[in-house]
Write a structure and sequence with these properties.
- The chain is globular and about 45 Å long.
- The strands form two sheets. Strands 1-4 form a two-stranded antiparallel ribbon. A two-stranded antiparallel sheet has the order 2-3.
- The longest helix is centred in the N-terminal third of the chain and has 14 residues, at 3-16.
- The protein is α+β, with helices and mostly antiparallel strands and 137 residues long.
- 6% of the residues are buried.
- It has helices at residues 3-16, 59-63, 66-73, 81-94, 102-107, 121-126, 131-135; strands spanning 20-21, 24-30, 33-38, 49-50.
């Protein structure tokens, strides 16, 4: 199955879980670049996306796994506990052939080389003075 088709299935799955997209659309541009585009004017106070908790991977969910419970029960101290819990949850679900998150995982890009933290020194220099660069330093 093509990546673009997987992304479209992810959007359909989100809607089947109760997500609502008003005035926006998810957009697949290329394998390493997805986005959200406005489909009409967005005014202050407009709700443009609504995602029910059932369609989100949450820290509470991660803590309820067997691994999450063991970490908590044994008082294990993690440097970044929330990130570690969520990462563990994702890894466990990736190994689960019956996971409900299949379309989410398959819709994720295989590479994030275009993500700002991976910009080259030269690319970052082009952004000098912009708010964008300060956001990711």
């Amino acid at each position: 199955m093509e990546e673009k088709e997987l992304y479209e299935r992810y959007e359909s799955w989100m809607k089947s879980m109760g997500a609502q997209f008003s005035k926006i659309a998810l957009k697949y541009f290329r394998p390493d670049y997805r986005g959200v585009v406005a489909t009409s004017d967005i005014n202050k106070g407009d709700i443009v996306i609504s995602v029910p908790k059932e369609a989100m991977i949450t820290l509470k969910m991660a803590k309820q796994t067997a691994v999450g419970k063991k970490v908590q029960d044994n008082g294990i101290s993690l440097i970044y506990p929330n990130n570690s819990m969520l990462s563990t949850f994702v890894l466990l679900e990736l190994a689960n052939p019956k996971t409900i998150w299949t379309y989410l995982f398959k819709a994720l890009p295989k590479s994030v080389s275009n993500f700002p933290i991976f910009f080259t020194k030269e690319e970052k220099q082009l952004l000098e003075g912009s708010q964008f660069l300060r956001t990711f330093q």
